[in-house]
Amino acid sequence: MYSFLHSFYRGLDVDRFVVGSGLSPSLERYVSIVFKLIICILASMSLIVSIFLYSIYGLDLYLSTAISFVFDLSIALPISIAFSIVLPKFMYSNRGSIVESKMPILLSAMAFLSSAGLSLHEIVSKIYTFLGDDYRFFSVELDIVRSYTRIGVPLEEALRYVAHLTPSQSFRELLLGLSSISVIGGDIGSFIRSMFDRYVSRYELMIEKAVNNLNVYMEVYVAVSLLVPVLAGSTAVLFILSPIAGISFEAFMALVTFILIPIPSAVIIVLADTIVSRLRP
Predict the structure, then answer these.
(1) How big is the CA angle at 248 (ends 242 and 249), to the nearest 5 degrees?
(2) Dihedral of the alpha carbons of 196, 97, 176, 209, in degrees to the nearest 10
(3) Rounded distance, CA 260 to CA 40, Å?
(4) How far is residue 238's CA from residue 102's CA, in Å, rounded to a whole number?
(5) Considering only CA atoms, which of 225, 234, 227, 226 is closest in space to residue 252?
(6) Which tens digits make up the pLDDT trace of 15-63?
(7) Short name of one Pfam family for this protein (predicted)?
């Protein structure tokens, strides 16, 4: 099963999401952890289902065990594998938004080190001391580059490999550009300035898109805030005039007050906060 998971994940390019999200330093380690967790989940679910069928429904022990195995193979196993694929992709996308918003910090640090006369190799080697606590946002990619160069991998190859892993578009463009500079040469400072200009242009588009999305959410929020109380009041009058068996007026008002109004509002607030947090540097 371990070999199957490893081949299956590699065929779906899950290794890029696993490493790029910072979830695990390698696909092999991630598969090892997932394999152990799946075994524990299947064993636990098999035991729970067997005990449930045996004690509640009074089925034969062997039949209960057989049904639990079928349940594991048909439901628990596919769900576990699907979750192990979706989780890295979700974390990959989330980290991409964070790294994208922190790119000005990295670009400023590289521009400063470049103006100090450091070579590209020296910039990559020493930038962690200059970034301080902010290094954690870029540590996945930069740690791999530093590790690869220590074992003799050419800097341009290490940069290209990491560019394939990173979830941030701006960081990918930066790494590919630095890889080209390390091969054919060029002015690092000029390249960093061009990256700044490109990032600002992209950031303006992101802000415009975010504002449009927020406007849509606010329209939905206003519509929900205005329409739901009106509809609830009209329906409440109907309940008073013509009660429905099994549904009291008090239960209906509790449903509207504590569920129909607060939950949509909370969802819209969470969505709006998510959009703003992606733009927050």
Answers:
(1) 75
(2) -60
(3) 39
(4) 55
(5) 234
(6) 899 999 998 988 999 999 999 999 999 889 888 888 888 787 777 778 8
(7) T2SSF
